[in-house]
Amino acid sequence: LAVQPWSLALVNGALMAFARTEGQILIWNTVPTTAGAVPDVSFTNAANLGEDATMDASTLWVLRSNKIAAWDLSGGYPATLDTPDVEVSLLDADTQMGTATRITSDGTHLLVTVQDRHRVLVYETASVLAGGNTSLGVIGGTMNVQFNLPSSAILSHGKLFVADTSFHRVHVWDALADALAGESAAAILGQADSSSVEPKKSQDGLFQPANLAFDGTRLFVGEFKFSGRLVEFVGTP
């Protein structure tokens, strides 16, 4: 790519790449199989793009300046991103005056990471699309769950994963409700136990995990810096 992809989304065979530095969203209707494949849809508008973007089967989401902007995709992609269909501001009480930096959607829930406040906010997509900005709850900052500059958080196949980047580990919950209730993760990957936080480039360790993808059995973890690895963990369904 001629841009630096900050995040990716794969939805019904379509691939979206968000290039934060260049202020671009690129979308291929099918996953490209050749180098330099031209995207079917592209948006280049640095003034209207911000920290992150993602999409699900019905909505394109952009996170910018502690606001969530949304475009309805039921009638196709918008011509521009000048005017969102919906835009809501995050509550100061949720962000604790920090900056929201990551957003993902499974179509039912939005996960928004406030990296500098070490927390993940959870929203119902239907509520946000109706103009609501009240979160379902916050993950992190409790006795049982401590993050250090978390990056990607995803809901996939009923499980919740959070890349705890600067503690060099990934938290795994078997259900979103468990995390919202403040329960400890069902598993912590990349460390021997919940008190271990040192970086490891070993086969079962992690070094600044940042991006996550899960297919129901295999979890792929992209490391952010000083490593350059894509690490695969295989679980038992």
Range of strand content:
35-45%
Task: Give the ordered list of helices and strands.
Answer: EEEEEEEEHEEEHEEEEHEEEE
Q: Which assembly state applies to the chains in this document?
A: single chain
Radius of gyration from the alpha-carbon trace, in angstroms = 17 Å
Strand order of the largest sheet: 1-2-3-4
Largest sheet: 4 strands, antiparallel
Envelope shape: globular
How would you describe this protein?
The model has no long low-confidence stretch (mean pLDDT 94). The longest helix has 5 residues, at 125-129. The protein is mainly beta. The strands form 5 sheets. Strands 1-2-3-4 form a 4-stranded antiparallel β-sheet, with no helix packed on it. The chain contains 3 helices and 19 strands. The chain is globular, with a radius of gyration of 17 Å.
Q: In brief, what are we looking at here?
A:
The protein is mainly beta. 6% of the residues lie in helices and 41% in strands.
